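Section 5: illustrative case.
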């Protein structure tokens, strides 16, 4: 809980807000003094809009009979992220940038190149040595994506596997 409070304080400071402790009865709560309420409102609207869009995507998938487990939701988030990034290449829009930040906050933390390299070596170590290179690459890629969905760029993973 203490770690969460520190992270919240740091986030508020980064956003230009000043955290304030307020006592209400026996409870002590932390609020942020906002310098620009209109900016905060716009930010919350962007977050709300993106969450509604994501919820709609999940609902549509479930209605079509597709089971939405964590891996499926991660795929939806990645697809949404790519769409927002494409929109940003066409035009710079602060609302789209905020929506992208919201989506990225729900995605798993991206793995470093070293982590990808290590995990690929671990996966390959458990495979039979007599597999042809193409099969070895495909099986490694499939296993990596199964274990670490959305945590690495597939092109980078493929390049690392080919190096090994």
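Designed sequence:
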């Amino acid at each position: 809980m203490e770690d969460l409070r520190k992270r919240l304080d740091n986030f508020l400071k980064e956003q230009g807000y000043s955290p304030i402790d307020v006592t209400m009865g026996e409870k002590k709560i932390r609020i942020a003094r906002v310098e620009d309420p209109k900016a905060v409102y716009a930010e919350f609207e962007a977050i709300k809009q993106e969450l509604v869009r994501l919820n709609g995507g999940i609902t549509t998938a479930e209605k079509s009979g597709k089971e939405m487990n964590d891996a499926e939701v991660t795929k939806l988030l990645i697809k949404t992220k790519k769409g927002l990034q494409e929109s940003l290449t066409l035009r710079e829009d602060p609302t789209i940038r905020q929506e992208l930040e919201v989506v990225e906050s729900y995605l798993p933390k991206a793995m470093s190149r070293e982590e990808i390299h290590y995990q690929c070596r671990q996966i390959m170590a458990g495979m039979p040595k007599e597999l042809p290179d193409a099969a070895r690459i495909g099986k490694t890629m499939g296993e990596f994506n199964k274990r670490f969905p959305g945590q690495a760029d597939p092109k980078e993973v493929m390049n690392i596997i080919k190096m090994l």
